[in-house]
């Protein structure tokens, strides 16, 4: 498992990790605040958001995961992109809070 250390935004704590699953990598993201907590994987977050704007939307395959196929360089690039994505998302929360 790869965990990303993220700064707190006020009283909100962000969590992100990359888990090694049988069929690829699973990206998770969540937050914990004094009055609320939420966490799930990025595929679920993005599909739930898309369905709010397009109720007939379906993902095919239903649960895509990036797979490094044992290549350490590809794995490094996936981790780098995941870290960048999560850090920019947290940065957006910090700017808007």
Write structural notes for this entry:
This protein has about 100 residues and is of the alpha+beta class. The protein has one domain. The chain has a 4-stranded antiparallel β-sheet with strand order 1-2-3-4. Strand 3 and strand 4 form a beta hairpin. It is globular, with a radius of gyration of 15 Å. The mean pLDDT is about 80.
The SSE order reads EEEEHH
Shape: globular
Calculate the mean pLDDT score and round it.
81
Low-confidence stretches: none
* Spatial strand arrangement across the major sheet: 1-2-3-4
From the N-terminal CA to the C-terminal CA, the straight-line distance is 29 Å
The share of residues in helices is 25-40%
Note the beta-strand portion.
Answer: 25-35%
Domain module tally: 1
The class by helix and strand makeup works out as: alpha+beta
Q: Tell me about the largest β-sheet.
A: 4 strands, antiparallel
* Count of alpha/pi helices: 2
Annotation, overall tally of beta strands: 4
Q: Nearest-angstrom radius of gyration?
A: 15 Å
């Amino acid at each position: 498992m790869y965990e990303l250390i993220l700064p707190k935004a006020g009283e909100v704590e962000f969590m992100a990790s990359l888990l090694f699953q049988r069929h690829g990598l699973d990206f998770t993201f969540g937050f914990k605040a004094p009055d609320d907590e939420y966490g799930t994987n990025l595929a679920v977050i993005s599909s739930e958001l898309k369905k709010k704007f397009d109720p007939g939307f379906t993902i095919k395959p239903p649960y895509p995961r990036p797979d490094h196929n044992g290549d350490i360089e590809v794995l490094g690039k996936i981790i780098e992109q995941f870290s960048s994505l999560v850090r920019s998302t947290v940065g957006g929360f910090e700017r808007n809070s």
